[in-house]
Amino acid sequence: MDNLERGCSPLDMANSMARSGQHSMTVARAAIDEALRLRASGVDGSALAAPSPAAESVFSAPREMPFIDVSSNRIVVPDREVEVLFVLKKPQVILLGNVLSDEECDAIVEHCGARYTRSTVTAEADGASVVHEGRTSEMAFIQRGEAEVAERIDRRLAALAHWSHECSEPFQLQKYGKTQEYRPHYDWLDPDSAGHRSHLARGGQRLATFVLYLCDVDQGGGTVFPNLGLEVFPKKGNALWFLNTDSNHQPDPQTLHGGAPVVSGTKIIANKWLRQERYG
Ligand SMILES: O=C(O)CCC(=O)C(=O)O
Ligand SMILES: [Fe+2]
């Protein structure tokens, strides 16, 4: 209650209670809702003017989200004109064309050269990066400030998404050879998983994902959404966008997705995850 009095956001408090490991996210939210109801009804001795209805949860209030303006089929960002190729409304999945030039795609691929290592996933138990049979690709990272072309694209994506480039993870490249895949998974971090809490503590939730397709693929290698009956094939320079949470920053289970096995050729993508807060 003292934290609420000091003006702490209920969601930040719930996240930090969940992170401490003492409570699940569900229990933390229920406890904060109850504290707010008690305060509203004056039971705790600090009555507010208007009690909120008993069943209403403070966690249903919308929060600021990154967004892409899809009111027309073209988006003008400072250094480029991007095409809107399709929009799925719920969950929001948007395919954008002409996000990167061929030269930019090639420059990023070349920059990463041979620095790839076997891809990992975040272990639920302790948050460690572990090799997993469901993700057989290789990965490489481009740290902030490392390459001019990456900085330029970072700024372009930030303008497209109306979100500070500081509130995002560095580019993560994924390279898939024949048969390699990433089986269906979620990009959001699970507040109820002990291993994900340390990652949530650094930058908050992954609100949205950009998948940048850096090359064409001869066959296979689509990005699939099993619950939506949707498959998007890689095309050099295109970018796929999806929101991982609802407007209240809570994980959306409809966003299950994966990278289908490459049948022939090589697939290279760059992931960019937009976070709630500054990521550094
Ligand atoms: O390979 C893809 O198309 C999707 C990759 C993906 O979902 C991820 O790396 O998190
Ligand atoms: Fe993913």
What does this structure look like?
The chain has 6 helices and 17 strands. Strands 1-2-3-14-10-17-8-7-4 form a 9-stranded antiparallel sheet. Strands 9-15-12-13 form a 4-stranded antiparallel sheet, with no helix packed on it. It has a two-stranded antiparallel sheet with strand order 5-6. The protein has 2 domains: about 1-60, no CATH class; about 75-275, q2cbj1_9rhob like domain (Jelly Rolls). The chain is of the alpha+beta class and about 280 residues long. Helix 2 crosses helix 3 (about 25-40). A hairpin with a 4-residue loop joins strand 2 and strand 3 (about 95). The model is unreliable at about 45-55 (pLDDT under 50). Helices cover about 20% and strands about 25% of the residues. The chain is globular, with a radius of gyration of 21 Å. Bound molecules: 2-oxoglutaric acid and fe (ii) ion. Fe (ii) ion binds near residues 185 and 257. GO terms for molecular function: iron ion binding; L-ascorbic acid binding; procollagen-proline 4-dioxygenase activity. InterPro entries: Oxoglu/Fe-dep_dioxygenase_dom, P4HA-like, Pro_4_hyd_alph, Pro_4_hyd_alph_FE2OG_OXY. Keywords: Dioxygenase, Iron, Metal-binding, Oxidoreductase, Vitamin C. It comes from Duganella sacchari. This is Prolyl 4-hydroxylase.
